[in-house]
């Protein structure tokens, strides 16, 4: 059996658990968050993360306030962060804040901010 790979970089994708969304809608919102945060990362970090296999972790919070607190902490730490607000064409009202994407960034830096969050 081969040893588990060590991931030095990852993305954290965080969804609001207090907004009623189908599983598919949550997936789409997290995909938006992943791309938006990725676009804010520097070229070197993007390449290192990509070469490692693009690790992502899906997490949840219970409020919009929680998302913004985490976003602020990430930005203060120099981590790419992107809030997603829905267009409102399917399940939820326009402008509803649904998700937050963080990174790619060093796993240890993200863990300081998201380590207490529950997995989705």
Automatic annotation (TrEMBL):
Protein family:
Belongs to the PTH2 family.
What NCBIfam families does UniProt report for this protein, alphabetically?
arch_pth2, PRK04322.1
> Any idea which GO molecular function terms this record carries?
peptidyl-tRNA hydrolase activity
Pfam families membership: PTH2
Tell me which domain of life the UniProt entry assigns to the organism this sequence originates from: Archaea
Enzyme Commission number, as recorded: 3.1.1.29
Q: What is this protein called?
A: Peptidyl-tRNA hydrolase
- Which PANTHER family would you find in this protein's record? PEPTIDYL-TRNA HYDROLASE 2 (PTHR12649), PEPTIDYL-TRNA HYDROLASE 2, MITOCHONDRIAL (PTHR12649:SF11)
Per the record's keyword annotation, is Transmembrane included, yes or no? no
Q: Which residues cross the membrane?
A: none
Biological function: The natural substrate for this enzyme may be peptidyl-tRNAs which drop off the ribosome during protein synthesis.
GO-annotated cellular components: cytosol
Q: Which UniProt keywords apply?
A: Hydrolase
The record's annotation in InterPro entries points to: Pep_tRNA_hydro_II_dom_sf, PTH2
Organism encoding this protein: Methanolacinia petrolearia (strain DSM 11571 / OCM 486 / SEBR 4847)
Q: Known catalysed reaction(s)?
A: an N-acyl-L-alpha-aminoacyl-tRNA + H2O = an N-acyl-L-amino acid + a tRNA + H(+)
Q: Does the keyword Zinc apply?
A: no
């Amino acid at each position: 059996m081969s040893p588990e790979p060590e991931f030095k970089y990852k993305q954290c994708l965080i969804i609001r658990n207090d907004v009623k969304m189908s599983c598919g809608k949550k997936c789409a919102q997290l995909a938006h968050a992943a791309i938006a945060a990725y676009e804010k990362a520097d070229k070197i970090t993007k390449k290192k993360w990509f070469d490692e296999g693009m690790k992502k972790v899906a997490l949840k919070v219970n409020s919009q306030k929680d998302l913004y607190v985490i976003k602020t902490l990430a930005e203060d730490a120099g981590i790419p962060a992107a809030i997603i607000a829905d267009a409102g064409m399917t399940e939820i009202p326009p402008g509803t804040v649904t998700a937050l994407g963080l990174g790619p960034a060093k796993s240890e830096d993200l863990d300081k901010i998201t380590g207490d969050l529950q997995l989705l």
